[in-house]
Amino acid sequence: MGQTEVQEDHRAQVATSFLLGRAAVLGAGAMGSRIAAHLSNAGVPVVLLDVPAQQGPRNGVAAGAIAALLKAKPAAFYDVANAGRITAGNFDDDLALLKDCDWVIEAVTENLAIKQSLLEKIAPHLKPDALVTTNTSGLPVVSIAAKMDAGFRRRWFGTHFFNPPRYMRLVEVIPTAESDPALVGALAQIVDRRLGKTVVMARDTPNFIANRIGTFAMLTAVRLMQEQGLTIEEVDALTGSVIGWPRTGTFRLADMVGLDVLAHVARNFAAAKAAAGEADAGAVDLPPFLVTMLERGWLGDKAGQGFYKKDPAVTDPKKNRLALDWQTLEYRPAERPKFPAIEMAKNAETVAERLKLIANGDTDRDKAGIFLFALLTAIWNYTADVLPEIADSAAEVDRAMRAGFNWELGPFEMWDAAGVAATAAKMRARGLPVSAQAEALLDAGEQSWYREDSALRLVFDPAAKVYRSIEVPDGVASAAVFRRAGKVVRKNPGCSLLDIGEGIALLELHSKKNAIGGDILTLITQTLSPGSEAVRNFRGFVISGDASDFSVGANLMQLLLSIQEGEWDEVDGMIRAFQRMTSAIKFCPRPVVAAPFGMTLGGGAEISLHAARRHPHAELYMGLVESGVGLVPGGGGTKEMALHAADAAQAASGLDPVTAPARFAISADLQDALRQRFETVAMAKVSTSAAEARGLDLLSVKDAVSLNRERLLLDARETAIGLAEAGYAAPFLRSIPAAGESVLATLKLGVYLMRQAEYISDHDVKVAGHIARILCGGAVTPGVMVTEQQLLDLEREAFLSLCGERRTQERIAYTLQNGKPLRN
């Protein structure tokens, strides 16, 4: 066996033998405590240590941080019960707790001497094989452990989380020259598979990858704003969703992150580069007005003011925002700038199309075009210039920016979208430099950084002037990969059927916001109906997609237009078609697994509820929200809640609903189960995690959860395979005893009391009454057996009735226009 084979065998052995049983986080500040919270989310017991408290209990600093996590917004935990996995301690009394920890994360203040001293202090208490990593965002990883022995340095490297760790997908893993590659690889797998993070291997250079590029981008936007005389609001409008960046834009994001954090990263970078005598040390210099803001403590949201602040004299949240005038450092009412070129670009369906329009537009006289061309080309040039220093490939940089800064496209992907050759020609015509890396690409006769070859995606290597395949970890896939490989079986504008291997097919939703319209209803129903070609050819199905959200629900615009035209037969047909689709999902002879993620609302939740199993992403915002637009769940969602209530009541009471339907229907257990589900539906409750969705009965205890969004598709495929191999059989149509008039009266009384207390409106009362009636099987004698079809009929009748209400129509129109519900 050769040396390379021996090394690979060693890495494989370490990867399979390293188990994360317990972890420790050193430092209970905002970052360290939230890392501990996410470890606990992943089921890992955590020791959280900090300095002894000067007053009160000695563990008060760490204990206080845990208490703060329970109140944090956005929530740090999937479920507050996860806080029970965190043990508080201090550096003087509790280092013995480290002896059982497999992974120790250093996350104390960014001070080299403090970090080095702490490592020396903890070393005698560590397991011989414990991995120790640093969460530093700016200090050289190698320098922190420079005083430690060789054995320690072998298991030492960087794991840079992004804040907040629960929500930000990126973890940069930074090995040193002495780090054991097998240990680095083993922990990278844990971070990927168990913590659900996108792992990017970075080099031990100033600010690593994402902060290096992101800080340069932000401060370049500031410089251009000053040069071109733009306002804070104008730059935010130009650096948001129109170019595929978070809609917060540059300055609103800076307020959220904190100007002190931004300044710290910038100064770390400048100092490190200046010390090395490198030319780009001034690339992220802070402008004078920002320095003044820091001196005044205008740090953003944490200080109550930064680039923006709220006007306490104005109560209307739409009008109470003040924006900073950077020239005078005074606040004035924020404006909503509009640029004709940007408004036109917004008509494009994708970010790639928008970037092409912007880059090929009038970038000489148009205000927006001038700014964006200067900003983007500066970012592209800079990123390409530093590529050899910071990463192994352009693909790693793009992954880091997508996962760490929530850019829809990384800088090299953006350059491809705009056209490398065309933009380079424009840059030369203006006397601007073009990165040597880009020139290498063009000199090789190529036109883009990326190339697609069947299922493979290739990226250009400027040093070798060849394309190299992008390594994808086992278990990571997307619908796009199967689409590139020619696996599309059928498709229409809203949905596609793809063969994703192992006898499983994917029903991919891809309409705008994955709103469910006729095209999705038709393809899913036809695909999953007994006797269909797909049912004959595949042993199971997954419903999912590549978008940021699973589905925002039914196509409300299509519904509203039909209502306004008085096309009641068409509205009735829509409801029936929706119910046929969800029934096809539920009664398909093959197992159907829904893999929801992000917003899974209304009809999206109903799709999931009817699947044989759900395999969601951990970040799941799921709810039957139809009452918010004055409707009831009409695609079987309310019906499923009634069935769930019956199941829960039977399990609690032990009563048989078939042999004792009357007793079952009036049992306290059924009343309690129906009340809980009534509140979920009538109050349009939405989970903030998959764990919360279980508590709302939108997921079951059998539904596994994936923490890594990139693994969701193939994880769901494994669930479908498991069901198929276990001999899956479709359920039968059910009948349950109706709770009837008695429980219906109880639910309506609760609604009446809420109205009297002015918690809800008259129209809310009307909607809630319909929901209660469906859940109770109608105003019938308790114990009367009702079928699933009868419950569906009640849903349809209620839905149609509410569509005819003026206030429902107002709610639908308002939601379409403003993206949030109207309480009228």
UniProtKB/TrEMBL annotation:
Pfam families tied to this protein: 3HCDH (PF00725), 3HCDH_N (PF02737), ECH_2 (PF16113)
InterPro entries in alphabetical order: 3-OHacyl-CoA_DH_NAD-bd (IPR006176), 3HC_DH_C (IPR006108), 6-PGluconate_DH-like_C_sf (IPR008927), ClpP/crotonase-like_dom_sf (IPR029045), ECH_dom (IPR045004), NAD(P)-bd_dom_sf (IPR036291)
Keywords carried by this UniProt record: NAD, Oxidoreductase
Range of residues in the leader sequence: none
SUPFAM superfamilies in UniProt: 6-phosphogluconate dehydrogenase C-terminal domain-like, ClpP/crotonase, NAD(P)-binding Rossmann-fold domains
Record's keyword annotation contains ATP-binding: no
Catalyzed reactions per annotation: a (3S)-3-hydroxyacyl-CoA + NAD(+) = a 3-oxoacyl-CoA + NADH + H(+)
Any one GO molecular function term: (3S)-3-hydroxyacyl-CoA dehydrogenase (NAD+) activity
Protein name listed in UniProt: 3-hydroxyacyl-CoA dehydrogenase/enoyl-CoA hydratase family protein
Domain Enoyl-CoA hydratase/isomerase: 504-638
Keyword NAD attributed: yes
